[in-house]
Amino acid sequence: MAHQASEILYPSSHLYVSYLGEAAETSQGSYYQLRSGYWVFAEGGRQGKFDPPFQGLIFSSTPRNAFGWVLGAVQSRTSPGVNSPETGITHTRFEVVQIYDTKDADNLTWNLIGPGEWMDSRHIARVDSATTPPEGVAGDRWIDVNLYEQTVTVYEKNQLVFATMTSTGVSPFWTRPGLFQMQKKLETETMSNSDPEDYYYLEDVPWTMYFDQGRALHGAYWHNRFGYQQSHGCVNLSPGDSHWIYNWANEGEFVYVHDPSGQTPTDPSLFSAGGY
After folding, report:
1. Torsion-angle region of 122 (φ positive above 0: left; ψ -120 to 50: alpha; else: beta)
2. Are 161 and 59 in contact (CB under 8 A)?
3. What φ, ψ does residue 38 adopt, rounded to 5°?
4. Rounded to 5°, angle at Cα 170 from 168 and 171
5. N or C: where does the chain have the smaller number of CB atoms within 10 Å of the terminal CB?
6. 19 belongs to a structural domain
7. pLDDT tens per residue, the chain (276 residues)?
């Protein structure tokens, strides 16, 4: 996209606008020009940049074993268990690791990620490729949103074609489990809420795909916390990942949202219309 993002800082609010080019310097200070043509004062805002950026994976065939992304800098251990010696190998955020075996120890699940290397599963956003469509999916194409692992996987002809991390809804703005169909696709969208207790304004939200009332898969340029819950019910993706899925998906596409841990509530009365 041709614009950049800037956050305008106000107490207890989230206000993001997109602007064109660099700031214009005047005798009264710096200003950004918005896509609408208006200008805003630069003071009190900050530009949204993330290093390193995050991008998911494209597949030509379904991988043979599970894999995942490391959620933060962590050292692997020589065997399962919190008291096992560390290997001296540090794995960093967004690194992709293969998972060859899984064992339980010290009330935790441990993943074998290499010869003599074990990692606590809480440090990995894990993907186990599906072998059959979820119940209710007609055809061989669907999008899978795993609320527990914070991952999104895309299937075509019953094969994994794309996988990435996401940020779904935090309590009490959960992303609702269930089987849905994509209702509407928009290249850009403005999302807002005028409630003073939960005010937000997000301009030019990219590659938006609504599937459950106000809940959508979409790009999120305002954070880089993929792999952790973050949203108001939407399925946040990196802009590049949302663009890939947007190009792949058609309106009517099946979206399967589930929580294998069972921790996400399912009572319909607990869910609002959703938001960013």
Report:
1. alpha
2. yes
3. -75, 165
4. 145
5. N
6. yes
7. 334 444 444 444 455 666 666 677 777 677 666 666 766 666 655 555 566 689 999 999 999 999 999 999 999 999 999 999 999 999 999 999 999 999 999 999 999 999 999 999 999 999 999 989 999 999 999 999 999 999 999 999 999 999 999 999 999 999 999 999 999 999 999 988 777 777 778 888 999 999 999 999 999 998 999 999 999 999 999 999 999 999 999 999 999 999 999 999 999 999 988 877
Cα 273 from Cα 101, distance rounded (Å): 40
Residues near 121 by Cβ (< 8 Å), separated by ≥ 6?
102, 108, 109, 110, 111
CA 271/CA 180 separation, integer angstroms: 15
Q: Is residue 132, in this structure, part of any structural domain at all?
A: no
**Cα of 100 vs its chain's centroid, Å:** 25
Same domain for 91 and 41: no
Q: Mapping DSSP to helix (H, G, I), strand (E, B) and coil, where does residue 158 land?
A: coil
Q: How many domains does the chain have?
A: 3
CB neighbourhood size of 202 (10 A): 23
The pTM assigned to this predicted structure is: 0.87
Within a domain: 218: yes
Q: Which domain CATH number covers 112?
A: 2.30.30
**If DSSP codes are grouped into helix, strand and coil, which group holds residue 229?**
coil
Tell me if 153 is assigned to some domain. Answer: yes
